[in-house]
Sequence to fold (400 residues):
Amino acid sequence: MKACGIIAEYNPFHNGHLYQLEEAKKRTGAEVIIVVMSGNFLQRGEPAIVDKWKRAKMALAGGADLILELPVSYSVQPADLFAKGAIEILAGLGCASLSFGAESGNGETFKKAAKLLIEYSEDIDDQFKKQNEKGKPYAVRMEQAIAAVIPSFPINLSKPNNQLGLAYAKENYYHGDRFHFEVIGRKQAEYHDVNLSENTTIASATAIRKQLLNPLNVQNSSQAFMPATSLELLNQSQLINWNNYWRLLKYQILSSSLKELQQIYQMEEGLEYRLKKAVQSADSFERFIQTVKNKRMTRTRLQRLCVYVLLQIKHSDLAALNQMPTSRILGFSPLGQQYLSEVKKSSSVNLLTKINKLTKDNWSLDIKAGEVYQLALDNVKLKQDFNRKPLNIIDITTGD
Fold:
């Protein structure tokens, strides 16, 4: 069976995602769509608006055939490591194609750009080190270094989906160019658009979340932009954002010594001192972030650091990123189940169907992430990980 892979967060699953799934299947001729989806904490350092099981249900209802969880050790990471984890899972499951959304370019453009980056990596690093504008964020400085070394670089790196697409292309290069790339152009809405338009049924996830989390959004003005299953699940759910974890995060920072904070993953450049100082006066997560961030320290980097603090992820916890990838099976269609049975023996991915006493050691960091995620929920019916079976599209209902 021919499989096409998609790397996603579905926060939440909306009409744009539905369009991508349909186009990916049509353009690649794939019989099976495999989605590697972030769990309860996401790439830009945010908790998901609803948990991974509800988002997996949305995706299955939208036409995905197999949903695999990207572990938190990769899901809350800069683009290169996020891509590394997801690509290794898809490659290990024998996917022939990879489809992703981008603001511009096609598959060959991204492959060409990745090859250029790798071939000129030493020159780019040298140019990066020569820069005097130390106050700028890492991403901006790197973009300037690339432009200086490769003036006609074919990808616009100021666009977030282009950045992720390029990270996928680099990983694909390291895997021997095994994937056919099918790039789906963003339709009608940009990644960071924060407003909903009355003239379309496609909007960015950012704009949809903004409306869903708005306490004045009584009429749910985002309903035109999502499939029925997504709407139903969201309407039945407590919606989550960083505000739900502010007191927990504040407690972690206040109760930890500077030495303990220094052990947190990505705690660099004396950030522990800034966190300690800012948390004393901040009365909300937003105020805290605004106090700590500066020109060099972007909001996204800080939010990721806050996830590491919240989950108490230390440098030592992520020392094994180069080992055989492990992924949790969240759900499947009959075709997805059939594909799993065909490739499971030859797969280089450690696939987990159930978390119990025998398998928990392979998923310990994600078990903790699920338990912390649920601390914000008022009504917890099931654990996020222990003894939960993969969802089957045939049995899916809108309840837990």
